[in-house]
Amino acid sequence: MTDPKGSVDRLRGFLTTQVAGPLAALLVAIVVFSATTDTFLNPANFSLMLQQSVVIGTLAIGQTLIILTAGIDLANGAIMVLGTIVIAQFALDGNIVLGLMLGMLACAAAGALNGMIVAKWKLPPFIVTLGTLTVLTATARLMTDSQSLPVERGLLTVMGQGFSVAGFTVSWGVVTWLALTAGFAYALGRTAWGTHVYAVGDSPNAAKLNGIKVDRVLFSVYVVAGLVYAVGAWLAMGRTPIADPSAYQTANLDSITAVVIGGTSLFGGRGGVVGTLIGTLIVVVLQNGLTQAGINSLYQQIATGALVVVAVLVDQIIRRKDR
Amino acid sequence: MKLRQTRAMHRWSAFVGSAVVVSSLALVGCSTGTPAPSGTPTSGTQTATQPPAAETYTIGIVEQQLANPFFAKLQQAAVDAAKAAGLEVTTAESKTAGDSATQVDAIENMIARGVKGIVLDPANATALVDVVQRARDAGILVVTVNTSLEPVDAADASFETDNLAGGRLMGQWAKAALGDQEPRVAMLDYDLSDKTAAARHNGFLEGFGLTEDSPEIVGTALTKSNVETGQTAMENLLSAHPDINALYTINEPAAQGAFIAISNAGKQEQIAITSIDGSCSGVQSVVDGEIGATVMQFPSRMGELAVQAIVDYVESGTKPSGVIDSGTALITDRPVEGIESHDTAWGLQNCWGE
């Protein structure tokens, strides 16, 4: 276990099989809904479900990075909402591009704040991000007087636009989400940074012994996650053209759900963004399919919750085998 | 009751913060509950014969977090009414949604200060019952506004929106707006275990002449009473039932979200959208043609009626009782025969919030 090269290789081996479970669950859900409803299986509906996935899916990418280091981010939805509000407020004054840049900056700064406290002061991420969640939510409300801000159509909502291929509409938001997933799959699997992220999550002490600067890796993960949330803010305005301080209040838990269902271990060091993409789709497909089937939406919550428990159970079994 | 939605939403939003808040509330509940000296023997008759009307006295106003414009409007109206009656006012408000602990402390302070009456907008229906009882034992008239305690008679009286009546107005208008079209109804709800949400839902069905199982209802979906979830829910319903022509929404933000989904699908002309709240942003949506009709509730009237009830009690000893409706009004620029409504110009003058 102290040989990080060996354990990283083993992890890579897991990654390929790990995606198999969630993928099977997704396919089963799609087959069942296609068979039981008339309206589920059609291009427009699939295009819709992809669009419904982008915001939580993007938040879940940042969440994946943090969970891989055995951390957790309860503030990601709040960081994103703050981003939308910063952007919208500057855009109202006519500075759209400046707004986007400052929104990025605000999200990165919020991530950096979390990262600094977690990495330097060694406080538990759960408590740190719980604190920043509260602070940022209140900040967003103060900035807007608890009202939602309008977002003018144009550059800020471009992520809701897209192109059509054979009746299947793909928004730029979907493209961005898929590209981010591909980019981070590469970064995690093929770069030194990615190897370090897994190593830190697997065992910080072992990573340190092998010369990895654990603090720096942790800090970088929170900052990068903050930037991903900023992209999420842009995507969110493309989907719903307002900046609403009361939106996405459960996005933090929704993103954790997607990550866990996607097979990433809450104990860190194992998992990846492709699984998270599938996990996000599972949640959205359940919500959409059960609505189409006319089933009380409380059952959707039961189904999602049950999947989380199953996913954690599978994770435990893999961990025991691993030892 | 945007407020109740928002509060409940916070409570159930399950972000772990609420777990912490709830457990700390429970602790506060225990610690304030146990040492309560139950033997403060102040009888009701004593207060009924108390001070001459000319003497000035103090009343307490306990609101929920003022960041919500509905609460802010209610509190302002109550304070103004009290000032106009020449009373001293002391105010307090909860810090976050569901924060009843702050309200409990505030009421204890008001009891100690010897206020004559308390206007309370409870952050939690049950957590405040005990402290309200202590206030009433001390001879203070306690009236709730906006939402009542459980049981309702834990307070002397309650001034709130009759949400069943509000829902009925929405249902009646939607049915009339459809004319002789065959109804294809969709409903965007909030968790129906919430009292307000259930009353609005049932009222709509009643007003439309439907029951829970009517085939005219093609689909229902849960929202969290905000724009984002309203949009997603409506997208899913439209995907399954492209022929929806009447829509119930739990509040105006949910309706605004639904409109985004509807206009993306190019079905603005096809669907009669109804909502409820009467916020200025919601009335503006009616002006803009996004919402067909909305039902206004009157937070300022709740505050005024509650203060008046305390003044009456102190001056003449008459106590209010039960749940008193603070009124609802249908706002639409497409009036239908047989249903009283106001146009949006009137709506914009009487709305609350921004």
Question: How does this structure look, described?
Answer:
The complex is a heterodimer of chains A (323) and B (354). By secondary structure, chain A is mostly helical. Helix content of chain A is 74%, strand content 4%. Chain A has one domain: ABC transporter involved in vitamin B12 uptake, BtuC. Chain A contains 13 helices and four strands. In chain A, the strands form two sheets. Chain A has a two-stranded antiparallel ribbon. A two-stranded antiparallel ribbon of chain A has the order 2-3. In chain A, strand 2 and strand 3 (168-171) form a beta hairpin. Chain B has 354 residues and is of the alpha/beta class. Chain B folds into two domains: 55-160 and 298-320, Response regulator (Rossmann fold, 3-Layer(aba) Sandwich); 163-297 and 328-350, Response regulator (Rossmann fold, 3-Layer(aba) Sandwich), CATH 3.40.50. Helix content of chain B is 46%, strand content 17%. Chain B contains 13 helices and twelve strands. In chain B, strand 3, helix 6 (129-137) and strand 4 (141-145) form a beta-alpha-beta unit. Classes of the chains: A mainly alpha (323), B alpha/beta (354). Chains A and B meet through helix 3, helix 6 and helix 12 of A and helix 1, helix 2, strand 7, helix 9 and helix 10 of B.
